[in-house]
Amino acid sequence: MNSNPYIETFGHAAQYKAQKLLRLGKIYKVTEGEYAVQPVLGYNKTTYAVKEIMGKLTCTCQKHHHCSHILAVFLFREQTESITGDRQLLFV
Ligand SMILES: [Zn+2]
């Protein structure tokens, strides 16, 4: 799964943190195209909102793009999409 070229555009620190967010179950789907990323103790204290706008994921943190939150949501969607196969159509 980590061979995805999109994932490779994120730095190693972001990849590491995104995996941690996933493993700790910090990502929640709020509504279609909108996700909440809860803080990891020791990293930060803020819950960030990641939204899909015009097919692109944007985040409410300072970086806006290419942050660990966006990568975590991307990985989260890959996982949930593979569980419920017909959902994939929603993301095409
Ligand atoms: Zn972010």
Task: Describe the protein's architecture and organization.
With 92 residues, this protein is of the alpha+beta class. The protein has one domain (5-82). Helix content is 35%, strand content 21%. It contains three helices and four strands; from the N terminus they run ααββββα. It has helices at 5-8, 12-23, 68-83; strands at 27-31, 34-37, 48-53, 56-59. The longest helix is centred in the last third of the chain and has 16 residues, at 68-83. The model is unreliable at 85-92 (pLDDT under 50). The chain binds zinc ion (ZN). Zinc ion (ZN) binds at residues 48, 59, 61, 63, 67, 69-70.
Strand and helix map with partners:
Elements (H helix, E strand, L loop, with lengths): L4 H4 L3 H12 L3 E5 L2 E4 L10 E6 L2 E4 L8 H16 L9
Antiparallel strand pairs: 1-2, 2-3, 3-4
Helix pairs in contact: 2-3
Summarize the structure.
With 92 residues, the protein is α+β, with helices and mostly antiparallel strands.
Characteristic key phrases:
92 residues; alpha+beta; four-stranded antiparallel beta sheet; 3 helices; 35% helix; globular; disordered C terminus; binds zinc ion
H/E element sequence: HHEEEEH
Low-confidence runs of at least 5 consecutive residues = 85-92
Tell me the number of structural domains.
1
What is the mean pLDDT? 85
- What small ligands are held by the chains? zinc ion
The quaternary state of the protein chains shown equals single chain
Helix content: 25-40%
The radius of gyration over CA amounts to 12 Å
Strand order of the largest sheet: 1-2-3-4
The main sheet comes to: 4 strands, antiparallel
Q: Number of helical runs?
A: 3
Shape: globular
- Overall structural class, as computed from helix and strand content, comes to alpha+beta
Strand content: 15-25%
The N- and C-terminal alpha carbons lie at a distance of 19 Å
**Strands, total number:** 4
